[in-house]
Known about the structure:
The complex is a heterodimer of chains A (about 230) and B (about 350). Chain A folds into 2 domains: about 20-80 and about 155-225, Rossmann fold (3-Layer(aba) Sandwich); about 90-155, no CATH class. Chain A has a 6-stranded mixed beta sheet with strand order 6-7-8-3-9-10, with helices on both faces. By secondary structure, chain A is of the alpha/beta class. In chain A, about 35% of the residues lie in helices and about 25% in strands. Chain B is α+β, with helices and mostly antiparallel strands and about 350 residues long. Chain B has 2 domains: about 50-100 and about 210-340, no CATH class; about 105-205, 2-Layer Sandwich (Alpha-Beta Plaits). Chain B has helices at about 10-25, 30-40, 45-65, 65-100, 120-130, 140-155, 155-160, 180-190, 205-245, 250-255, 260-305, 315-340, and strands spanning about 105-110, 135-140, 170-175, 195-200. The interface between A and B is large, with 54 and 49 residues. The structure holds adenosine-5'-triphosphate and magnesium ion. Magnesium ion binds next to helix 1 of chain A.
Amino acid sequence: MIRLDRVSKRYQQAGRDGLRGVSLAVGEGELVFVTGHSGAGKSTLLRLIPRLERPSGGRVLVGGVDVGQLPRRKVPLLRQRVGVTFQDHRLLADRTVFGNVALPLEIAGIPRREAARRVRAALDKVGLLGKEGAYPVTLSGGEQQRAGIARAVVNRPPVLLADEPTGNLDPGLSDEIMRLFTAFTGIGTTVLVATHDMGLVDRLGHRTLSLREGELVADRPAREAA
Amino acid sequence: MARRTGHGATPRRRQRRSGGWAQRLVPRTRRRRDRPRSRRAPPAPLLYLLRHGQAAARALAWARSAPVHSLLTAAVVGIALALPAVFMLALANAERVAGGWGAGAPRISLFLEQDAGTETLQRRADAIAERPGVAGVEPITPEEALAAFRADSGLDAALELLDENPLPPVLVVTVEPSLSPSEVSRLADRLAGTEAIARMRLDQAWVERLHAILALAERALWSTGALLALAVVLVVGNTIRLTIESRREEVEIVKLIGGSNGLVRRPFLYEGLGYGLLGGGIAWGLTGLGRWSLAGPAERLAEAYGTAFTLSGLGLGNGLLLLLIGAGLGVLGAWTAVARHLAAIEPR
Lengths: 226, 348
Ligand SMILES: Nc1ncnc2c1ncn2[C@@H]1O[C@H](COP(=O)(O)OP(=O)(O)OP(=O)(O)O)[C@@H](O)[C@H]1O
Ligand SMILES: [Mg+2]
């Protein structure tokens, strides 16, 4: 589903390398952790997939499509099919939780009634059903994070990227969110989770990619007895 | 580096465990993704309307979040549109007054040679009546002229002294009211050069001057109109630029989750459309107000000149035209801002 072929990413103005010659492949319905120290390139790796960044070298393929070669007007379609949760949430301040989560459905042109049903289902899954009318500023960090997750999954994208999805969550909630992601792999969704939380990684035993200084230093397969 | 060791074990097992519903969905991500589009999404034209409705609603919400600024912009647009509209109305009314000469003047007086007989007079009258642009020809024999002169002037005694009628036969030509002053004078010159005509007199100097002034005013109207249209485009463009700046985060997020450029652009264009329409409406109202406040004085002025005259207003057609022009300029202004500033926003 996702293939990186000797991908490097150099940030021109900063003159730093985000990624250096990373090659990997993730299959359909797989859940993979991406770990590494801060600044290792986890976010950079994720951002290449919906073309929020373009690689400076190598190729990024999503569903067999070379993302770097995608014409500009097709980029929105790619992004609609890649759900992303961001480290800094990126919620719209002047929309309620409901409005934020409904946004991808609005973009896809889903009729209101159907959209409302799906939004509630997504909010239910992240445990935010009671907060649908709240504005993001009135939410705690973890609640904002979960609203972001609901927005990423509401359209049931075939690819789901989560950047530090559990950073602000207590262990109980973390496990809940991870269970949600795992459930998505059950319907064929490919999930990439960038995280520092080695405890979580070890506990769940999914396949784990380790980055260091922009290089892929380990690719640990899933533990059999997960 | 790229080892794909061991992946796939988890999902396959999960599939088995989760039974029926997963079984149906798993191998067909593609289909599952496409099916909602064909089954649940409304047909294309409806979807199109829906999207435009959403964009318009969004624009309205933005405008509501900064009501004073939005109303000020609309007011400026309205005033800028009202100025040329009022100017145009004044001009149209002035032209209507100037057009009042249609019934009497202008007349072309053609004086025939002294010795031309009644027969020549009648023949020339018939010939000239045939010409294009001529509405009517009235032949006046020297005798008739003298009689009229006597009656009008009261110089009976003095005229008795003349032993011979000094007046020449005259043809009084009335022209079609549709002719412009320059066309009238060209016609008069042409007639003056024809057979048996000795002299020609055309008294329309004041009409010519008036028309020259009106033509000048019309030219001025077009150039101020063009300048004010430009002002509207700039004002709306600037307001939209500010909206884009204050909505930067929103634009980024919408692009981030797959909003197309068209989708991102639409609410801004609707905002421009809104300013244009509202401004056009304000301009319409302002011209109506102006007309209402001038109606009394104009009537009194007309009375003083012994004519009946009412100021004409924009009328429905021109009012709608004003709205249309406002809408067009608003969208154009929004477009200039969107083209310059929106594409530059890339999601981080
Ligand atoms: N927009 C940018 N411009 C310049 N340099 C950048 C940019 N984004 C990331 N970098 C650099 O690229 C490297 C990798 O950054 P990245 O955000 O991928 O790290 P990360 O693994 O996500 O770290 P963290 O765990 O702190 O989120 C860092 O050295 C960072 O400074
Ligand atoms: Mg990061």
